[in-house]
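We include the pair:
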Amino acid sequence: SFLDTQYSFRLAKLKLMLRSSMMGIVYRKCLCLSLSERSRFSEGEIQTFMSVDVDRTVNICNNLHDAWSFPLQIGLALYLLYTQVNYAFLSGLAITIILIPVNKWISTRIATATQKMMKQKDERISCAGELLAHIRTVKMYSWDKLFTQRLNKRRELEVKHLATRKYLDAWCVYFWATTPTLFSLFTFSIFAIMGHSLDAATVFTCVALFNTLISPLNSLPWVINGMIDSVISSRRLHNYLSTPEHCSSELTISSDIVKDDFNRNTETIYDPTTVIIRNLCCSWSSTSTVEPQIILRDISLQLQKGLFIAIVGEVGSGKSSLLNSIIGEMSVISGSINSCGSIAYVPQVPWILSGSLRDNILLGKGFDTRRYEEVIQACTLDVDISTMIGGDMSHIGEKGLNLSGGQRARLALARALYHDSDVYLFDDILSAVDSEVASWILEKAIMGPQMKRKTQLLSTHNLQ
């Protein structure tokens, strides 16, 4: 009893440590994925990884010990039965062996049902997250029934596969639960047919051994199913954790390269704040087994300090891909990208925190009153702040739900300007605002005094 208690305590402690570590690994992996690889996994899938799959993988700690201890207990009990009824126990053992293929077939069906159930669970969690993220819009347009039907449909499919799995579990447990009864019936029958007499000592000893077999025999199918679940979940986690990460080494900081390349140009040649791209070929995905599809081919570009360069092209011409390649979000097939200095990137779809407007601009940096006021004026956020009840401390909602598209774009721009980086990459940020505001931002923010001696690269499809 003492040893069993210590075993349970230490095993529970080990499982808790493993679970915490694996959840942390899954979370950190999510932060390290590039944009292209991150799009392969929905939020629902990642949440399932951190909850269901981690738990099932950790449960292998129990199953591994049970997998070797239960057969040992069964073998020892069978040997003791042999000492009591000689070879008569083989008849009961034959019944057990016959049931093994049946349970193997059931276990295979359980694994298939589990995979389908997990897939439907991922879709349901993703749908529920989408519904909660836009619950205000759903309520305003009275789409409650529509989204409820969508959610219930996914839940029904999940429950359908879950029911299939539970029915198979029941059959598996039934076969193994009846094994001791069949074992004793056939053993005593064959023992009597062989001409031996059944005395009280033999019967009660055998019954005690049969009862000893009940626990491992009944638990063994659960151990098998648990190990199957652990293998499935570990494969899902392996597929996720083996995804290539955002490789920051593709952005090489080398002032020597910059000096050599720009030694013949201007007086700012010794300032390392620049970006150099040589014969670059990039692809979005690096996991494909076939030849990767090259998005950018033979791109060469040199950005010196203080220059403002606009990339003008049609929608889908690769402007955003070029900016993403500079910040390391694309997989480099050939060529090189060399970057010196800090880089601020303002995407087309702004990333907004659930907090106040000021918190989104500062983003952990110290508050500088003068620079803060200059930035919000340059981005015309002062007018919006004046109309808010709480000013810049107003809560803007999750993902900026309380802001318009133009306000979110200007907020992302203000954040980049406030952090005073060396290189600025603007991904078509003027398309979300009207022409008057765009002219103001271009004059006061992008070309303003706070951007002097800053390297800027702007992508746009607007020729004006």
Remarks:
- The chain has a mean pLDDT of 80.
- The domain at 248-341 is CATH 3.40.50.300 (Rossmann fold).
- The beta strands are 251-252, 274-283, 294-303, 308-312, 331-340, 343-346, 423-427, 455-460.
